[in-house]
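mind reviewing both lines:
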Amino acid sequence: MSSLFEPPEPDAAALRAGAPLAARMRPRSLDEYVGQEHLLHPGSPLRAAIESGRPHSMILHGPPGTGKTTLARIVADSADAVFEELSAVQAGRPEVRAVMERAELRRRSGRGTVFFLDEIHRFNKAQQDALLPAVEEGLVTLIGATTENPSYEVNGALLSRTRVYELRELSDEHVRALLDRAVARGELGLVRVEPEALELLTARAAGDARTALGALERAAAAAPESVVDAAQAGEALAGRILHYDRAGDNHYDTISAWIKATRGSDPDASLYYLAVMLEGGEDPRFIARRMVILASEDVGNADPQALQVATAAAHAVELVGLPEGAHALAQCAVYLSLAPKSNAAYKALGRAREWVREHGAAPPPAPLRSGGRGEGYDYPHDRPGHVSPQELLPDAVAGQRFWRATATERALGERLERIRRARGKQP
C-alpha cells in the first residue's frame, strides 16, 4: 500500500525476478519456512502471535543464514504491516527518526509498521535508548536481529520490552530441503545439478542457507554444458564457511568445548576445537593462556611436566607467532589430553581459601615469623631425613587437611603419609 507520504512499493514479482537466488527463495509464509521448529511448532507463543496477526516486539538471536530476516518479513505480512528495514552498521539516529515519522503517518491511517533492525547490537546505549519510546507506545513493532548474545549486547531496558528468541543453526536436512526446492522450482533454468553437488553444498554450508543458495547460483551460472557437478559446487563455495566471532558466543563456546574435551582426555576432540579456533582467527596467545591454566587446574601434580609443556608452548607462540606457533599449540593439546588428570591442588586451594574466608587469617607461629622474630625455629635440614616435628600451622588451623591426593597422585599421597609419620603426625 502506498500513500502521499512514501513512494509506491515496487512490484514484488519484478523484484524477485531480478533478485539473487537466496532472495527469490525467501519463504513468504510459515508453511514455506524451514527450520526453527522449537520456536514455531503448533501452539507456540511465537507461532500464535504470527498467525493471529498481533506480533510483539522481539529480538531474534542466532547465526547468519538461519532465517532471521525472513521470519521478520513473515511477521509483517501476517499483520498486514509495512516492513521497514535498517542495518545498525550503516544507520544512525536520522535514519531511525525517518522510520518513526513514516510509522506515525501510517498509524494515523490505521496501518502498522514492523521495524526490522539488523545487527542491533551495533547500536550503542544511547541509540538503543532512543528506540524505547516507539516500542513502549506501540508506534512500531521492533524486531532486532543479532548474532551476539542479547544479554550482553542489548540494553536491559530494551530487553525488558521485547521477547528474545534464539534461532538455531539449520541442520543439513533443512539446507538440503531449500536447495532441492530451488532446483524443483526451476530457479536455475535448464541447468542440471548432480546429487553429489547438492550433497557437497549441504555439507559445507555450516547451516547457512544463504551461503548454500548463493554458491548454487554461482555454480549454475558458470556451469559448462549446463551441468553442475561436485567439483564446480566446491569451487563456487570456496571452502567451508566458518562462523566464528572472537568477541562473541563462538569465542567462549569453543574455548569451553576445548577445555572440556582436553579435560576429558580426547586428543581428537581437543585438536578439532583447536583447529576451529585457529581457522576462525582466534588470538593464539589466548589459547596458550588457557592451556597453561588447564595444565595446573586439571592435570596438576598427576603430571607436573604438563605445566612446563604448556608454558613452553605459550613462549613458543610469543617467539614465532603464527602459523608456525600452531605446531606448539597442537603438541601441547595432545600432551594435555593424554596426561593423567588431577584437580587436587585446585580443590585444595579452594578449601584453604574457604577456611580463611570463614575463620580469618591467624598469625603464623612465632618461630616462623621473619625479621629476627623467628626464635625457636627448628631447621629441617638439621634433622634426619630433613623433616622436623615442629608445627607449621597456626594453633587455630592445626590439624586441617586441605590437600587430598587423587588416584593419579598415589606416589605423592604415599610420600605425604611417610612425612607425616616422621613428623609425629597422623597420616
Observations:
- The chain has four domains: 12-166, 172-237, 249-338, 345-422.
